[in-house]
Amino acid sequence: MPLVDVPDANIDPDGVFKYILIKVTEKASKEEKLIVRGYARCAYHGDVLDETEKELGPDYELLCLGGGRIKHESKNHTILVYGYSQGYGPANHQKSVDILKKKYPDYKITFSNEGWILSASNILHSMSLENIPDVDIDPEGLFKYIMIKVTSKSTGNEKWIVRGYKHCKWHKNIFEQTEKEIGSSFSLKCVGGGRINHEPQKKSLLVYGYSQRYGPAKHEQAVNLLQKKYPEYKITYSYDGY
């Protein structure tokens, strides 16, 4: 597929979903262009990038320039572009709007750099310690994970949680994302990390390895937390490997 035939915009026809702005470079000619992609079926911005890489194939080099969310109301002919990606940072929403206007010339298309941050903060800052999920990991695959001690600043109560995501390259990225999600009412301390191999077809989880930055987590403690969320799974751990 020549670069000129790569669609500038490909987003879901309705709903609220994550999107990313991508610079696409044709390897042979070195020509490049910006494209917008966004799908409700993708839980993470990284999933949108993965899908686009498969869509375009090996003849192109893709660089994600940031992300956010799109609210597409086809009945009202409106699109709102807003927020940011925790993995890639905020996209240049003005550039995204310019691209979307070419595909939807009869739409009212606007953007905001504030919306998602404010709404998320309002929700999360009022969250009680009990409402913070003990476990939040990707539904399948091999990825890094960390164990975090969360302390309520107002009560001093604390709990341990497990977080793990494929779209986070480093254990530190998981920690930073969790800090943003949980908000300023809590104090977070990473008490170690490792990796998780999640195989939902086999109903199995393997917890192993360590974090070069934070050291190894207490995998047996992580297993206990995971077992509560996945009671029908076989969950094992090992301190071998990285």
UniProtKB/TrEMBL annotation:
Biological process according to GO: cell differentiation; sex differentiation
Keywords for the protein's UniProt record, in alphabetical order: Differentiation, Sexual differentiation
Segments forming a coiled coil: none
Pfam annotation, one family: Ocnus
Lineage top rank: taxon: Eukaryota
Keyword Nucleus: no
Gene3D superfamilies, alphabetized: Janus/Ocnus
Annotated Gene Ontology cellular component terms: cytosol
GO MF, any single term: protein histidine phosphatase activity
Keyword Cell cycle: no
Function (record text): JanA and janB regulate somatic sex differentiation.
PANTHER family for this protein: BCDNA.GH02250-RELATED, JANUS-A/JANUS-B
Protein family (similarity comment): Belongs to the janus family.
Protein name stated in the entry: Sex-regulated protein janus-B
Organism per entry: Acanthocheilonema viteae
